[in-house]
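cache lookup: miss for this entity combination. No prior model stored, computing from scratch. Input as submitted by user K.M.:
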Amino acid sequence: MKAKVYVSLKPGILDPQGKAIQHSVELLGFTGIADVRQGKYFEIALSDSADPEQARESVNRMADEVLSNPIIEDYRVEIEG
Amino acid sequence: MKFGVIVFPGSNCDHDAYHVISKHVGQPVDFIWHRDTNLNSFDALIIPGGFSYGDYLRAGALARFSPVMESVKKFAAKGRFVLGICNGFQILCEAGLLPGALIRNRDLHFICEHVFVRVETSDTPFTNEMEAQSVLRIPIAHADGNYVCDDATLRELEQQDRIVLRYCDQNGEATAAANPNGSRDNIAGICSRERNVLGLMPHPERACEDLLGSSDGRDIFRSLAATLAGVV
């Protein structure tokens, strides 16, 4: 079983890295880009015997307490069987 | 009075802080390894600058889980004094001892230069030997010093007179042009509600000798020593 956690800056928090990436992409000639936001992606391998609901709960807590800073970041958790 | 300088893997301003306390403040000081948890013999702690845990995950995020940090929280809860400089400020925010967060600098650069900061209040244990509105010239050295907080937090900081330092120009004006990293409201340092915990991005310990370009940082350590002299 695998958990995927996506962490991104909250809307409204300035993302200077995202802005710089957008600028570089546009320099390469790509057009029609309204905004780029960058973030972090975690893959957490879980033992196959883990209970999916319990796994989701504990990964949510990991994301809340460690992987993200709730003051500036949002997260999303996916559990894959 | 006894000072402690906490050392995490990756701290690199610990010796500067130690030097300033022993040489310029003239008081006993010890290093505290991040696995130590007994802080009973200390009256004030310095969480120094550097790159604790290599800034992995987020600056200051992993240091929060070091064993010493639970003791630091109890130490602060007793009203004892904690000074977090640069990475130390980031750690204090991640640990929830100070509100808000420090994100990547507005222009992405690592900035290492002397800046001007204005002392916004002399009503803290760290600034009581200075006049409010006085201007200090102190270096900054960081990539993640851009202070962010929500509107409610900013209002609370202002109402409770907890914004201790703001980036300013040499005349003491906190202009947008004098804001090196994009920090909200030019904030360079804030204190806790009980005023015994201060976090700041500038490095006063690097500004204690004229030979190094400025000795303005000494007033912060002098203030803390004067406070301790009154209570210890």
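stored under new cache key. The radius of gyration of chain B is 16 Å.
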